[in-house]
Amino acid sequence: MLDSVGVSEPRQEIMAEPIANSLPPLTLVLGGARSGKSRHAEGLIADWPGTRVYLATAEPGDAEMQERIRHHRLRRGEAWTTVEEPLELAAVLEREAHTDRAVLVDCLTLWLSNLLLAERDIEAEAAALIETLGGCAGPIVMVSNEVGQGIVPENALARRFRDEAGRLHQGIAAVADSVVFVTAGLVQVLK
User: Fold this and answer.
1) pTM, entire model
2) Per-residue DSSP letter, 8
């Protein structure tokens, strides 16, 4: 198409469905507490042209956690659809992951805590999640706390949690297209 001075204008195509904005099918964002990992993960999806789903695994068990959840919701704004699911992560991902949606899961370590407290079979739940991820349509960004870089915890439950988190991270990282580590708001690409 030529404009009024005879210069060719770029052709604009109308898309029937939103397309990925260079977001890989599966991204794992790791980092410590208050490292900026959630903000980074939200930023990865911020320009997604379709629906943005925030799959929250936290349970608002006390006033401090309620305030954290409120703060996260305010930061995200109303452009996100929030789905809260503390345990059935694989089933909700199957339901929510579509080609016109980007899903952010925040966070895997809270999900793992919920599973431990509910006395669920961690190995089976992790395997089901990883299997589900392989069949999901649309991009998924998963956030998790890296807890294995500190001292060995003094009690058996904390050691089990650390070990289960490490195994979960390894399993998801193996199938992820992109893995990043966030420290002090700075992103290091691992894969």
Assistant:
1) 0.85
2) B
